[in-house]
Amino acid sequence: MKKHNFSAGPCILPQEVFQEASEAILDFNNSGLSIMEISHRSAGFVSVMEEARELALELLGLNNKGYKALFLQGGASMQFLMTAYNLLNKKAAYLNTGTWSSKAIKEAELFGEIIEVASSKDQNFNYIPKTFSIPDDADYFHCTSNNTIFGTQMKSFPNTSKSMVCDMSSDIFSRSLDFSKFDLIYAGAQKNMGPAGTTLVVVKEDILGKVDRKIPSMMDYAVHISKDSMFNTPAVYAVYVSLLTLRWIKKNGGIAAMEKRNDEKAELLYAEIDRNPLFKGFAAREDRSPMNATFNITNDSLKDRFDDAWKAAGVNGLNGHRSVGGYRASMYNALPLESVQVVVDVMKELENKA
Ligand SMILES: *Cc1c(COP(=O)(O)O)cnc(C)c1O
């Protein structure tokens, strides 16, 4: 039986994407060859890469606006250093909203002075700091739009004349934003876009070429752009499956339609977390993430019973991250509303039987 998959990442993708992806392993586009055995320079794969890059920009509303999309390797974690390598001359401003922001800061510190403009570490990152100022002499401002581990999401972004760099790994393509506010967006594929192994980078070309240091080719966005994201062998299969997901998003109404479904799912679950006395939300209400809902059980003696019940209902991946504990329901684009209803029903049943 197919599970209700709330895994935080790698995570659920649309069932029809899995179907198509599996077919291409045996026979890619009736070519008599597997997607895994063809050259990345073949016409078949070059068109996959080109369509994926185009579609990513189109869905974000960023085509013909000076942006380039790249599918790189090394995960979002590689972007922690690659962004700094390419953009940081002397000083950069970072908003620290969780584990991933902290890791981005640690890497960037190898390249220059990092000003942490605000941090919510004092409250175990259960909220998003809202008042901070970005120093005038910062080369860029970096933030994390959605904090996968703590279940918080930035609902607004500062208006700044500085370049804005954002780690959108866990909420890319999930909600409408004015993406043109950002100069560089990166996202590991495995949270909402595809399998692990590739990372989408969307970069405004005119912010590049301004640092003094020499940049190794593999770390240099300009090199990857000049080679159409094929400087070296890309993660062929991960890019292909990401393309299938991007097509699925477009076919199903684009980001606006995703957002509507995601909001419905989030409202259903958060309403139950707030109503049911056996549960308590972790993140500050106004900062709650529709992608990752974090919550605790208020009566520890019921924990085993709850765990048995959701597992018996076919639910997977509801355990919280070790740094927060409790539970985390990740409700990415492909997760159906019915799966959320299953969890809500288990929560209600626990209350009725307690
Ligand atoms: C998962 C995650 C990362 C790390 O991604 P990798 O691809 O494993 O390097 C970074 N940032 C955020 C917001 C994430 O959710």
Automatic annotation (TrEMBL):
Record: residues binding pyridoxal 5'-phosphate: A76, S77, W100, T148, D167, Q190, N232, T233
N6-(pyridoxal phosphate)lysine: residues bearing it: K191
Record Pfam families: Aminotran_5
Residues involved in L-glutamate binding: R41
Gene Ontology CC terms: cytoplasm
Keywords in alphabetical order: Amino-acid biosynthesis, Aminotransferase, Cytoplasm, Pyridoxal phosphate, Pyridoxine biosynthesis, Serine biosynthesis, Transferase
UniProt entry tagged with the keyword Isomerase: no
GO process annotations (BP): L-serine biosynthetic process; pyridoxine biosynthetic process
Entry's Gene Ontology molecular function annotations: O-phospho-L-serine:2-oxoglutarate aminotransferase activity; pyridoxal phosphate binding
Pathway: Amino-acid biosynthesis; L-serine biosynthesis; L-serine from 3-phospho-D-glycerate: step 2/3; Cofactor biosynthesis; pyridoxine 5'-phosphate biosynthesis; pyridoxine 5'-phosphate from D-erythrose 4-phosphate: step 3/5
Cofactor remark from the record: Binds 1 pyridoxal phosphate per subunit.
Cellular compartments annotated: Cytoplasm
Function: Catalyzes the reversible conversion of 3-phosphohydroxypyruvate to phosphoserine and of 3-hydroxy-2-oxo-4-phosphonooxybutanoate to phosphohydroxythreonine.
Family to which the UniProt record says this protein belongs: Belongs to the class-V pyridoxal-phosphate-dependent aminotransferase family. SerC subfamily.
Alphabetical list of HAMAP family matching this protein: SerC_aminotrans_5
NCBIfam families: PRK05355.1 (NF003764)
Protein name: Phosphoserine aminotransferase
Organism: Christiangramia flava JLT2011
Higher taxonomy: Bacteria, Pseudomonadati, Bacteroidota, Flavobacteriia, Flavobacteriales
